[in-house]
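Hey L., structure's done. Input below.
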Amino acid sequence: MMLMLLKQRSLVAALFVFTIGLVAYGPEALCQNPPAGSTLPVKTLAAGMHRIQAEVAATDATRSRGLMYRKELAPNHGMLFVFEQANVQCFWMRNTLLPLSIAFILDDGTITNIADMAPMTENSHCSTAPVRYTLEMEQGWFAKRGITAGKKITGIQ
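Output:
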């Protein structure tokens, strides 16, 4: 009987925390798209003649959320992740609904490597060298344009 009462109290506590979170962050916290009015800075980048509109994720919070829960990504749009220091960067696709390709980028804009990432997986995709930038685009975007390791992305800095 006591165990059952504890389980019920735990459930009530969990529902209370959920409700407080819903009130604090609004119903958009449950949506599959980014919250309305939530805007990240957008930077225009280039890969050769190809223009990219990249949302900039430069804080721990924005980098952690990334493109999670997005149902679509506009053509030639992506997300640029900016880190304070160059390190080997690793990404996974937990709660990410879209298949993506990620380019790992040195300070001078040179791509070290590109990886294709399957949605809703926790496989690690890591840079082959320490980098400060990564760029996520719809899966196949780089390959379709002949953009490979060694090419440059301009407009990052």
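The radius of gyration is 19 Å. The helical segments are 2-25, 60-65, 141-144.

-- N.
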